[in-house]
Amino acid sequence: xxxxxxxxxxxxxxxxxxxxxxxxxxxxxxxxxxxxxxxxxxxxxxxxxxxxxxxxxxxxxxxxxxxxxxxxxxxxxxxxxxxxxxxxxxxxxxxxxxxxxxxxxxxxxx
Length: 110
Prior knowledge:
The chain is of the alpha+beta class. It contains 1 helix and 4 strands; from the N terminus they run H-E-E-E-E.
């Protein structure tokens, strides 16, 4: 069995680092392709690109009801009461109730 020399260790470490960089580049290229396909679909939709601003009223969709096939889901409302956008960061926002009470967490906007 061959003994590992310091040179071999450095060469193999560099090879592993190069493979990781290639994998990262492939992930980034795939993400850009998916974003381009999504943007094309959004821009060609009848509503186009919708931008929400702080102060506007929005409703929150209860997605946990989607996978529920119980009969009781038919009477559970899918949409919440109106909420006001307080801040926005990229595709997410923070909300507050109309009475001024903040809601915990960030909400994704589609």
